[in-house]
User: Fold this.
Amino acid sequence: MVFKEKRVFALIFLASSVFCEVFFEENFNDPSWRKRWITTSQRYYNGKPFGNFNWTASTYDANDKSIMTTDDNSHYAISTTIRKFSNRGKSLVIQFTVKFQTRNTADYDAKYCAAAFLKLFSPDHDPKKLNGDSPYLIRFGPDTCPTANRIQADIFYKNKMWIHAPRDYDKKIYVYTPMPFIPDDSHTHLYQLVFHPNLTYEKRVDGKLIVEESGHMEHGWQTHPPRRLRKDQPKPSENEWDEREYILDPEDKKPADWDAHQYVPDPYAKRPDDWKDDVDGEWEHPIIRNPKYKEEWKPRAIKNPKYKGLWQAEEYDNPDYKEDPDLYVIPEVGAVGFENWQETSGVVYDNVMITDDLEYATSVALPIQKKAYEAEYKVFAEKCEQERIRKVAERKKIEKDHKRLNTIAAASNPSRHDEL
Ligand SMILES: *[C@@H]1O[C@H](CO)[C@@H](O)[C@H](O)[C@H]1NC(C)=O
Ligand SMILES: *[C@@H]1O[C@H](CO)[C@@H](O)[C@H](O)[C@H]1NC(C)=O
Assistant:
């Protein structure tokens, strides 16, 4: 028995390692990336030029290279054709790292605006023609601007683009809230988007699940009407259905000595002996705050024994709803690329991987992200420390100059100093 279980376990283990498939991987470490990745041959889109990418070394290792955008107020379009694949029957994991290198993180950077989307294209994609109008299958990545600040994940489904907008979350998107899920710094972070055959999806940053932006795909993209609807029933009266969780205790009685008068006549005041009504007007007894005053009496609250919870109309299956078990399937991917508009350049892309195995993808990219982040943070912290030392020195100098000027002023005008 035990032996059998072990065998089963070993088989499953084998199966999962055999079937893990990497559809595409790019770490830009080898100069040959320039042969694979093609920049658009278009010069302008929407009246703005296309910018250039530089091949740059990471902070922690000169051999770990990335590509970086270099021109402000520019479009970027670079893509590569890949071996055709579909994720039918498998999970789809899309991951890459982004570093918003030029973001000023000492302060909220109100002018910073850059999108960093990775896009998946169908096999008929032409890299030379890539621009903002080119159709894509998935667009995924952080977009950090004063007006939009979120991790986009948009899909092409049934001939339509669907913007990721989780049903219970749609009031919060497209408004500026300080860096909700995009880390608020200028360091390297890992972004992952995962679709599963059970129609759930995950968004992850640095390996951590973003719970608010994960769940069922139907909710995430609102591709389907709700599965269940509620009957149009009149709400029952309070007698039939009591929704009050607490009520005032009918047994509770007001104590006899409860004094609810906020003001009372001053017991020590009396009409002065020499008061004359015709001269002084009618004498009024002064009032004072009542020392025994208690707020208005209310019976205590108790649990309502008739409480039935919040009433809801009965549910029924929505006849217009039809599950699509293929909602997670991207039928055919043939190219991958970055296509973005950036007001602020200096965005670094790296560690692109598309696979069917989240665990494997994470085990490759997360250690790199951690190393990069730590090295970048160290440089950043040193810069902050230098800045602090500079500011202290500057203040000291101002204080010294001030003192010197005061001494000169006092020496040249001693009498005035005495007057002060
Ligand atoms: C991009 O690379 C070129 C050539 O190596 C270099 O001259 C230029 O300064 C780089 N630009 C940025 C923004 O790093
Ligand atoms: C869906 O599938 C994924 C991957 O197998 C799994 O991690 C997740 O728990 C599943 N979710 C549900 C709701 O079944």
